[in-house]
Design brief:
Blueprint lengths: L2 H12 L13 E9 L2 E8 L10 E7 L23 E5 L11 H15 L1 H4 L1 E11 L1 H10 L5 H4 L14 E5 L8 H4 L2 H15 L7 H6 L13 E6 L8 H12 L4 E6 L12 H15 L6
Parallel strand pairs: 3-4, 3-5, 5-6, 6-7, 7-8
Antiparallel strand pairs: 1-2, 2-4
Length: 297
């Protein structure tokens, strides 16, 4: 039995093959999208019970936070979007105590390639893949979104290296965008969090690892063909300076790419205020607006 057959059987069991609009099916857990040195990399698929459109489900590749050094695919605070007809593929990636940057980007791009390579069997729309994340995961999501085809960041993880890893949109929940400026913008509390996290991610502080910090900064890669971007950030965030989202917003405006910046007034780092029904409705409307114009292949 090949991998796609196994996936199809699992999907059928998870959704009991009876699809209803507006509900979520049981997730499909632990799909292995790649292996690195015999260590499996897995993702979970959170599925609508609504019958897939002829073109397949639009799919959100979700990247968890955790200062690049912790966290897991179990945390999916945007899961309500499944009821809006989105598949959410929540991805585990190598954490910084195990592998330094850019391993994390290589892994996420491999997950996108895996999903696109299996899109027909999984009933996913290859054209409508979105990358989204929170905190450190939002930094990684933004970097994935603005570096399509970047040889150093595409990596060689997984079995589908010839498959496109591009995305149709990016959603960033209070992510970093410039690893060379983040420390100068941080509060003392934020420095206590970010200094050790960045040293672990980069193998040194951003100043001593300037070239790597530049490579890891989404603001350094923004171009006129990047996908639409939605930024969500609390203006009282003590860990991830809101200036990081301002910088990426400014870069997008500078190249006249579609971008929306939603400030959560009084919002700190994380918290339910970022994932209220109204906020997820805003996310859904942003995606619907921009996915509607994705050309057919």
């Amino acid at each position: 039995m090949n991998v796609t057959t196994k996936i199809l059987l699992t999907l059928c069991v998870a959704a009991t093959c009876k699809l209803n609009v507006g509900r979520a099916a049981a997730p499909v857990r632990e799909l292995i999208y790649a292996q690195v040195s015999d260590v499996p990399l897995a993702l979970d698929l959170h599925l609508p019970e609504a019958t897939a459109p002829d073109s397949g489900y639009p799919t959100i590749i979700w990247v968890h936070g955790g200062a690049w050094r912790s966290g897991s695919k179990e945390s999916v605070p945007i899961q309500e979007l499944v009821e809006r007809g989105y598949v959410i593929a929540s991805v585990n990636y190598r954490l910084s105590p195990v592998a330094k940057f850019p391993a994390q980007i290589h892994d996420i791009k491999a997950a996108i390639r895996f999903l696109r390579a299996n899109a027909i069997d999984l009933k996913l729309d290859q054209r409508k893949m979105i990358v989204a994340g929170v905190s450190a995961g939002a930094h990684l999501a933004a970097l994935v979104g603005v570096t399509n085809g970047h040889a150093e960041l595409e990596g060689a993880v997984g079995e589908h290296l010839q498959v496109d890893s591009s995305v149709a949109a990016i959603v960033s929940f209070f992510g970093a965008s410039n690893l060379r400026s983040i420390l100068s913008q941080s509060t003392p509390y934020g420095l206590n969090m970010r200094v050790p996290a960045l040293e672990l991610l980069l193998g040194g502080d951003p100043e001593s690892r300037a070239d790597l910090a530049r490579l890891a900064s989404p603001v350094e890669h923004v171009s006129a063909d990047d996908p639409p971007l939605l930024l969500i950030h609390g203006d009282q965030d003590p860990q991830m300076p809101i200036q990081q989202s301002h910088e990426l917003h400014g870069k997008y405006k500078g190249v006249k790419r579609p971008v929306q910046f939603e400030v959560v007034h009084g919002g700190k780092h994380g918290g339910d205020e970022h994932y209220t029904p109204a906020m997820l409705e805003l996310v859904a409307k942003f995606l619907e607006q921009h996915l509607a114009s994705v050309p057919r292949k």
